[in-house]
Amino acid sequence: MKNLKIKHKLFMFIIIGALTTSLLGYLFVQQSQKLYEQIIYREAEDRLYLFSERIEERLKEIDNLSISVLADSEVQRNLHIIKTSPDVYESFDAANKLKKKLLSYHLSDYSVSFIMIIDSNANLHIAGIDAPNLDDQSKAHFRDLGYRYEGKSVWVGGEQQDDNFYSVRDIKEIPDLKLESLGTLMIGIKSNKAVFSSSRESSYYDSSLMILADNRTIFPSHSTLNPQQLDLRGLRQYNLVTIDGGLYLATQFTMDYTGWTFIHFVPYGSIFKDVTIMKFVLVGLYLLVLLVLLWLGWRFSRGIARPLEALMNKMALVEKGRFSVDHPEAFTNRDELTLLNRNFDKMTEKLDMLIKENYIKQIQLKEAEYEALKAKLNPHFLYNTLESINWLAKSNGQRTISNMVKALGDMLRYTVSKKEFVTVQEEMVNLQNYITIQQFRFEERLIYQMDIPADIRSLEIPNLMLQPIVENCIKYGVDAETGRCEIIVCAKMMKDKLIFIVKDNGPGMDQGYLIRAKETERLSSGTGIGLHSIDERIKLLFGAAYGIEIESGVNQGTEIRISIPVIPVKTIQSSVG
């Protein structure tokens, strides 16, 4: 906290207050939803219980109907005739009478799909519609099922017809209490009619009902749910389960009458749709209030901290040497911080004006010194004297002296030239004249090499930039033991820079002399133009990014690198024009 800025401290205080309020509101919403969920769970459980009770009553009604059918004396008599006289006319007549009797029972209850009897000869006697067409294996299965339960009613579903429930019961011969099997009675009822009292009830909350018998789904007929995928052992009376990525409220109940297990699935989103919407609305309002508070807090803290930050930034720029304000910030407030910023801007503006005035005066002074230095080397009588000496040397056949004098005259003309910029080719010619003069002195001990590409020779450079540096190399770069001096002058272009390199194999310079050479010492007593002066001249012309760099060491020679911008001839001519 100690290192935080003022605006951050204020903003943090506002955030803590807003978050605390929002958190309390969110906890209240969560607790309210939990209470509502408990009420819904209990309601779903009670509803399923009533649901299963109604289904049980409906199945008992069908069982009562089956008792009436099998106890009917006419039914008993006709089945007895069919069993004892299967191949006579009486058997055929008894089958017709039996079918009419079954039809009368079917008409008494329209919810029954069909009533069917499998007689002792495995013949079918059917009244109603949608009766299954049983093969011999299915007939034997249902007869065995009814016989196994010894006349009791057994309910099956999902067999033969997926959308029907069957009440199966063995028909015993009642007269004389023989209790011999006369056949098997099957009463079928549509599963939807047995489960739902109306179509509207089936779409309650987009819910779905599953009925299991022996861990096998008997309702609905085409269920996508696999009972093996549900952990029914861990399922309580109500629980939340995930099916195909969806969350459901599952309630279960086992009917004692049939042993079937009822599982009611209600989509969690459908139950809590309104609650979820209200929850999102409240959370949205809390977030909106939080954002408004944060925005107001940020505006408040920023209004205090912004003038202070602006003042600190200006002070940092002044510390780096930038006194001018490019775009002064316009503060609309009239408090103490705004007045402090305005006064600081006025102070830096005055300082910048004074510094610029002093800088311009320094530049003018340097230019005056440079012009005065060139004026010292401008005695016109030297031209005539050197011409006379050259004519006399030629007359006496002294070609060596004549060449030396001619080179010296050309150097003088080049030195006192009024041109600020010359081509690299012109500088090379002047440098060659100087080398010609020095070779008369050193002869074969002076080894000179110039490697400047042709595309660089047409570029412009400041006048007298290379010759003083080469002169310094000859003066201080002669080997003490051999008296030899090797000098290499080369140039190259790197992006937008033109770099000249002057190297010698002399004894080099120690660190102390190197520092003095970079700062104040002169490179050559012959010209009077020091390395520091050349470096300042380049920086005045082109900026601080250009200038001279020196690399040297004792007995390692010296390498001087001069960097200037690439200046085509047209650029200089246009700027002069």
From TrEMBL:
Cellular localisation? Cell membrane
Q: Which UniProt keywords apply?
A: ATP-binding, Cell membrane, Coiled coil, Kinase, Membrane, Nucleotide-binding, Phosphoprotein, Transferase, Transmembrane, Transmembrane helix, Two-component regulatory system
Question: What Enzyme Commission number(s) apply to this enzyme?
Answer: 2.7.13.3
What GO molecular function terms would the record report? ATP binding; phosphorelay sensor kinase activity
Q: How does this protein sit in the membrane?
A: Multi-pass membrane protein
Q: Mind telling me which PROSITE patterns this protein's record contains?
A: HAMP (PS50885), HIS_KIN (PS50109)
Q: Which residues form a coiled coil?
A: 337-376
The family database entries (Gene3D superfamilies) matched by this protein are listed as: 6.10.340.10, Histidine kinase-like ATPase, C-terminal domain (3.30.565.10)
Q: Where is the Histidine kinase domain?
A: 465-568
Recorded catalytic reaction(s): these are:
ATP + protein L-histidine = ADP + protein N-phospho-L-histidine
Using the record's annotation, list all stretches that form the HAMP domain.
302-356
A GO CC term? plasma membrane
Keyword Cell inner membrane tagged: no
Which parts pass through the membrane? Answer: 10-29, 277-298
The identity of this protein, by name, is: histidine kinase
Q: Which species is listed as the source?
A: Paenibacillus thalictri
